Amino acid sequence: MIDALHSLFQHTAITDGVSVRVAVSFMPEQSQVEAGKWFWVYHIRIENGRDDTIQLLTRHWRISDSRGMINLVDGEGVVGETPILAPGESHDYVSGCPLPTPHGSMQGHYTFRDQQGQLFEVAIPFFPLAAPAAAAG
Questions:
Q1: CA-to-CA distance for 105 and 61, rounded, in angstroms?
Q2: Is this structure's pTM higher than 0.85?
Q3: In the Cβ-directed half-sphere of 76, how many Cα atoms lie within 13 Å?
Q4: How far apart are CA 129 and CA 65, in angstroms?
Q5: Does residue 137 form part of some domain?
Q6: Residue 21 gets which letter from DSSP?
Q7: Which CATH number does the domain housing residue 128 bear?
Q8: In this structure, are residues 78 and 60 in contact, taking their beta carbons and an 8 Å threshold?
Q9: pLDDT tens digit string along 35-78?
Q10: pLDDT above 70 as % of the chain
Q11: CB atoms < 10 A from the CB of 85, how many?
Q12: Could you tell me the residue range of the domain that residue 79 belongs to?
């Protein structure tokens, strides 16, 4: 049976056997277009396709708006968690991103530690943030 959620994910990157899938949605009810504030929610699924257990330690985001402003965000874990993923396991989380423009993008990477203590980076795929034309202001 095909996993119905996989059809929701619009962007995917696979690095060293770890898949990062992203689904993004514009949230008009959380945006204030007249005040120049647009808001998106993104759902990320991280899947461990490796033969060893790994732990997510940090995240690095590069968030850009349509004016060319770039915001770099670094931090521990994701939404307050540093999940440990055994082979075949996945971790899902949802977060949000406000922008001062109706269009932008996000991309980045996670840093993981494997069972031998080695650190490695896993790409977060590039994904656009685009408000529908009616909400673009």
A1: 10
A2: yes
A3: 3
A4: 9
A5: no
A6: E
A7: 2.60.40.1470
A8: no
A9: 999 999 999 999 999 999 999 999 999 999 999 999 999 999 99
A10: 92
A11: 20
A12: 4-132
